[in-house]
Amino acid sequence: MRTHYPRTPHLPWSPGAASDDVRIADLSALLGREVVVTEKLDGENTTLYADGLHARSLDSAHHPSRAWVKALQGRIGHGIPDGWRVCGENMYARHSIAYRDLDSWFYGFSVWDGDGRCLDWDRTARFLRDLGVPVPAVLWRGVFDRRAERALRALKFDTERQEGYVVRTVDGFGPQEFGRRVAKWVRPWHVATDTHWMHATVVANGLGPAAALWAVRSGAAPDAEALLAAVGVPEGDRTAACDVSARLDALGRTGDARLAGVLAALLHERPRSWLAGRLAAPLGMPTARRVADLVGLHTGLHRPYPDEQRRTGLVRMSYAVDLGVLHAVAGALAPDADAREQVDWSQLHAEGVDGPTGLREAFADLDTDAADRCWAEAREAYAQGRITTAEEAVAVSWRWRSGEFPKLIHMVGPSGSGKSTFARGLDADVHVSLDDLREARGSRADQRANKDVLRTGLERLDTALAEGGTVVWDATALNPHQRSLVHAVAHRRDALTTHAVVLVDAAELARRNTDRANPVPPQVLGAQLHRFVPPYPGQAHRTWYIGARGTVEEEV
Fold first, then answer.
1. Would you state the torsion angle of the CA atoms of residues 207, 209, 214, 219, taken in this order, to the nearest 10 degrees?
2. Residue 212 exposed, middle or buried by CB count within 10 Å (0-12, 13-18, 19+)
3. Of the spans 47-61, 133-147, 356-370, which averages the highest pLDDT?
4. Phi, then psi, of 364 in degrees rounded to 5
5. Which of 341, 358, 27 is nearest to 167 (CA)?
6. CA-based end-to-end distance of the chain
7. N or C: which end of the chain has fewer CB atoms below 10 A?
8. H-helix or E-strand containing 36?
9. Which tops the pLDDT comparison, 449 or 32?
10. So what's the pLDDT on residue 358?
11. What ranges make up the beta strands (E) of 481-530?
12. Measured in whole angstroms, how far is the alpha carbon of residue 115 from the centre of its chain?
């Protein structure tokens, strides 16, 4: 069934309302609710379904500006459930604003389920991202009250480049509530062309670098040159990117999973630690980390592995990456027939290794630390084949439900990445810093007594964990061997272990190093980056990935 998109009422202070437009007279349905304010785009209202699309009019005819969005619907329609609809703006043709840096020629702004309800905003954004469709820029989010109303009334816009904004409740709503839960502000004289755009020659709006990323998310064939430009990397394996793209299509992967696989194949010759820091800015930390982990893990599938240990190994790999994507990347990059055979054999073992459903829900009544500990212990028990259900997960993790265990936050990252700054901001009982221990001996740069400094640090760590509370270990901890010494102490004291991994682009690290109060020699920093092996998810009870801004950007 096709559904006409309702007319969005204007806010009382919207200057662009025409005489026949609807204004929202009563803002009471917004007051006290969390709302999201997004940019209003100057496009053609368009609705996509599993089996087709239409513009605002249900019987909209063909127009050249609709050819691209029809192709998009052909790629993503299989991901829209029957009876659902995706509403958004077809941005292909220039109307009265000339856009030059769009992420896509289609932006989604609402998703309606089979019962006719508009999904809440967070679920909308996730659903659309999985399809490969961006949402308009979020200008503000918060509780709508009189203060927020005054701030919105005072917003200043460049009306040559922006059409306006839309306010909607973060919560979902039914069709009968639309006119009270959604409202818009539109610039004055917003139809500023002499000839209606549909009767003029179609001029395409401009796309920005990120459009190549969104195209891959939506199932388009990868444009290797555009992808490399978007992520700021000069060279890549174009053939492998096309190969893995076809494999991922066969698996039905879209969204960030497809993008991660294509980029991992394109950039597989780059070091994993370098990739994570470089890609965080254009992709966001979660996708950047997955690309890097696919690059790091895929070669393991090319080698023989004891069959009795395969399931455990694959379950642990699944903490970091999508196993289907991992096998697609490994298959595309297999160097010979023997490696391809190993990948195929591994793929057979990977079927059905998904963990028991409802694990997180089973620990929802616990505080954060206890829930994370129980979940991690249950996850490992599943990997070892000791449990298969959520009920068994509760039983096997019962001893940690009280949360009465010490906690270790283990910093990981090269010099100048921001480890110590982040560590100082943590609410910890004890802070063990190897640099501070060296400084107490006379010089924080003196590496000659490293063995003694490490021994002293581990003794202090052991004592602090034995007393309970939260302890921060602040050292570079660049490789698994260095981290294993700390892990041994934490395991002996039954501590909840958190890896706090700082991933920053190498060029940014070099710049920061010159501004540090205690810079390290450039050759030392270069050697650290060469040796850096970031931990994978699952190598501690939980892992925080921290970006260049010094905040946790992903928790696994």
1. 90
2. buried
3. 133-147
4. -65, -25
5. 27
6. 41
7. N
8. strand 34-40
9. 32
10. 84
11. 496-502
12. 29
Beta strand pairing call for 542-546 and 182-186: unpaired
Q: Which residue has the tokens 């690059």?
A: 295
Grouping H, G, I as helix, E, B as strand and the rest as coil, residue 495 is coil
Which residues make beta-bridge pairs with 185? 165
Q: What is the DSSP string of 97-117?
A: S--SSBS-SEEEEEEE-TTSP
Which domains, from first to last, does the chain contain? 34-199 (3.30.470.30), 216-350 (no CATH), 366-404 (no CATH), 405-555 (3.40.50.300)
Residue 446: predicted pLDDT: 65
Show the tokens assigned to 253: 């992967």
Higher pLDDT: 451 or 79? It is 79
pLDDT tens for each residue of 69-110? 999 999 999 999 999 999 999 999 998 899 999 999 999 999
H or E element: which one contains 71? helix 67-76
CA distance 461 to 451: 15
Distance CA 546, CA 409 (A): 13
- The single residue listed with the structure tokens 């249900």 is 58
Q: What digits encode the pLDDT tens for the residues 453-472?
A: 999 999 999 999 999 999 99
Cβ–Cβ < 8 Å for 412, 534:
yes
Asked if residue 32 has pLDDT above 60, the reply is yes
Beta strands in 144-181 (DSSP E): 164-169
546 Cβ neighbours under 8 A, 6+ residues apart: 413, 418, 422, 500, 501, 502, 503, 552, 553
Task: Identify the H or E element spanning 81.
Answer: none
Tens digit of pLDDT for each residue in 396-428?
999 999 999 999 999 999 998 999 999 999 999
**Of the candidates 437, 469, 463, 431, the residue with the CA atom closest to the CA atom of residue 450:** 437
Q: Is the dihedral of CA 281, 282, 285, 290 positive or negative?
A: negative
Beta strand extents in 370-511 (DSSP E only): 407-412, 430-433, 470-474, 496-502
> Given CA atoms 340, 346, 348, 354 in this order, what sign does their dihedral have?
negative
Position 520 confidence tier, pLDDT thresholds 50, 70, 90: confident
Closest residue by Cα to residue 315 from 271, 279, 351: 351
Question: Phi and psi of 454, rounded to 5°?
Answer: -65, -45
- Residues 532 and 272: their CA atoms lie apart, in Å, by 9
Q: What distance in Å separates the CA atoms of residue 406 and residue 430, rounded to the nearest whole number? A: 11
Residues 6+ positions from 70 with CB-CB distance below 8 Å: 53
Q: Are 520 and 513 in contact (CB under 8 A)?
A: yes
The distance of Cα 371 from the centroid of its chain, to the nearest Å, equals 22
- What tokens does 193 get? 């062309």
Q: CA of 93: how far to CAs of 72, 97, 106, 114, 196, in Å?
A: 15, 10, 11, 30, 11
Instruction: Determine the length of the chain.
Output: 556
Which 8-state DSSP code applies to residue 405? S
pLDDT surpasses 60 at 190 = no
CA-nearest of 240, 226, 244 to 270 is: 240
Choose among 392, 331, 332, 379: nearest CA to 353.
379
